[in-house]
Structures are given as C-alpha cells and as structure tokens.
Amino acid sequence: MLWVNWLVAWALVVGALLHGFGTVRMLKPQTGEFVWSMGSALAALLVAGLNLMLINRTGDGMLAALACLSAFAWSGVAWGFGQSIDDPRDPRVIWHMVCGLALGVLALLVWI
User: Fold this and answer.
1) Cβ neighbours of residue 99 under 8 Å, at least 6 residues apart?
2) What are the domain boundaries of the chain?
3) Tens digit of pLDDT for each residue in 54-72?
4) Is the pTM of this model over 0.70?
5) What is the 3-state secondary structure (H, E, C) of 14-35?
6) What whole-number distance in Å separates Cα of residue 27 and Cα of residue 87?
7) How far apart are CA 69 and CA 75, in angstroms?
8) 33 CB contacts (<8 Å, ≥6 apart)?
C-alpha cells in the first residue's frame, strides 16, 4: 500500500511543479495573482512532502494526522479553484483533487 502513497505523492509533486512553471510562464511577476499562485504551488509541494515522509514513519500518528488533513484541505482548495473558474472538470482541478483525496484516504488509513 505504501507504493501507492509514494506514486500519488509524486504525482502531486509533478502537478505542483507544473503549476509553478505555468505561473512563471503565464503571470506577470510581482502581482497578487503571481504570489498566490506560487504560494499554491508551494502548498501542494508541502502536502506531497508530508505524505512522502509518512511512508517511512507509519508509526507517527501526528504526522499521519497532518498528512491526512492537509491532503483533504488541498483537495478542497482544488475544488474551490474549479468553482472559481467555472470549470470543475478542468484537468488541473481533477489532477489536484484526485491526488488530494487519494493521499487523504491513504494517510487516514495510517492514522486510524
């Protein structure tokens, strides 16, 4: 089961890196949108990092709780982004929501 967690966490890393790359390419630096978008890319990397750390520390209940809650929260952020652009079926939204939900469930299984 841990290999699934590893795979999904790295998928979220890829999504976060693509998000950051798209931000640099599409948005003007030093604007509010740029800062918030880069912050979102960083948040996705942090969620993925927590879940990658959990792979080697399955006995750490606090880490499992943080990984679980952050992943579900990230999925909610992705859903909110989909609503804000009036396209919840956008591939970016689906990618981040699926990764967030999967990581949340996997971390929950470690947590309980």
Assistant:
1) 8, 9, 11, 12, 15, 48, 71, 74, 75
2) 2-111
3) 999 999 999 999 999 999 9
4) yes
5) HHHHHHHHHHHHHCCCCCHHHH
6) 20
7) 10
8) 27
Q: Please report, in tens digits, the pLDDT of each residue of the chain (112 residues total).
A: 789 999 999 999 999 999 999 999 999 999 999 999 999 999 999 999 999 999 999 999 999 999 999 999 999 999 999 999 999 999 999 999 999 999 999 999 999 9
Residue indicated by tokens 């509010």: 32
The first and second tokens of residue 96, run together, are 């981040």
Alpha carbon 9 to its chain centroid, in Å, reads: 8
Side chain identity, residue 41: A
The encoded tokens of residue 95 equal 């990618």
- Residue 34: C-alpha distances to residues 24, 26, 46 (Å): 8, 9, 18
Contact 64, 107 (CB under 8 A): yes
The burial class, CB within 10 Å (0-12 / 13-18 / 19+), for 100 is buried
